[in-house]
């Protein structure tokens, strides 16, 4: 049996960041990973998809000069491998610090302080579970890896399908719809809800969807998929059933936490199908055991997992932090990009008396016009005291813009203070300033 200070199960952005941070603070760490380090984000999520987004941007630029331009998909796959390998090497270096040991294997709890990987057993006073999530398959058919795929399988495809049906207009569905339409596939999206991307301001989400429709993506909204068979995808809309077929079908109907292999009962850790139950410090029902990232089901975002890991390690070290988990920025890397932080106008209409919604437009911004990126808008939301409480946007580099607002919200800044902050000319950031001037 190996004794250490901290065991971390899972080597994704939650686990590896927590390991590095704990080691820097003097703890001896054992981190156990059954696959490649980097988790979903690096291997089959954020990073490969953002590499594909970049290749789609490059193709769009080429298409504007040459309408016959096509994608070299072998080059796309090669770059994907190079980028993932490079970043994986960086994480392996981080985890090669003298007081971190990376163990390859599948971890299972023996009791509340003991974990086994089959051939070795580890014990520690503190354990962080960071096992992430996997694609959730609704009861509408079977995946067959070649035609009916999750996002992981689609990222391993060796050619661009002529046609692609995507089930679900959430973050994964919308990002792949945008990428494959640019790559040349005929893309159809089927979504159960009235609007795509429910966490986004509905007005912004509608504008984004309309923009993607104009580019040639077909959307069937308020359409629930009931079956996937050899004949294709069957969905019901306004009481009518319809079936469409495609070369490839992506199921993007949400993700579920990876809990099954852990033997959580042996450690006395409470959980539901939605994830491991945690408090605000990410403590589980078992003393000394924490759960961070997708596995607790609170916020399925890589940066949320990393910051939850820092909070958990701070708890172990007896340190106080001021991380504001209620101010959680996020982005959707479609074309155009969309991003948000805090309250939407929909939320304010229902919940915030005396709110103000200030708008800024890309078409009125010098940098956006120079970049030929005039589509997009920003909505700033303030409360009656003028404090910034949310920002939702779509348009080029909107994620970077939302980051500024997120930082200002963390500092409790008001819209009149934002008005007094100088923004570089010409930048897209001036759209935020222009919106603040509208108050
Ligand atoms: P999601 O929960 O965001 O969206 C799934 C969509 O599928 C929903 O809109 C739902 O109404 C629809 N749906 C479910 N069953 C359906 C049916 N039978 N017929 C038609 N529509 C149906 O899930 P998604 O897109 O799979 O993403 C999973 C997680 O990964 C999310 O929490 C997301 O935040 C995270 N993620 C974040 C990214 C980012 O931050 N850029 C990128 C990719 C994923």
From TrEMBL:
Domain of life where this protein originates: Bacteria
Pyridine nucleotide-disulphide oxidoreductase dimerisation domain residues: 328-434
Domain FAD/NAD(P)-binding: from-to ranges: 5-309
Keyword terms: Cytoplasm, Disulfide bond, FAD, Flavoprotein, NAD, Oxidoreductase, Redox-active center
The protein's Enzyme Commission number: 1.8.1.4
Main localization of the protein described in the UniProt heading: cytoplasm
Annotated GO MF terms: dihydrolipoyl dehydrogenase (NADH) activity
Reaction(s) this enzyme catalyzes, per UniProt: N(6)-[(R)-dihydrolipoyl]-L-lysyl-[protein] + NAD(+) = N(6)-[(R)-lipoyl]-L-lysyl-[protein] + NADH + H(+)
Anything else known: The active site is a redox-active disulfide bond.
Stated name of the protein: Dihydrolipoyl dehydrogenase
Species of provenance: Prevotella illustrans
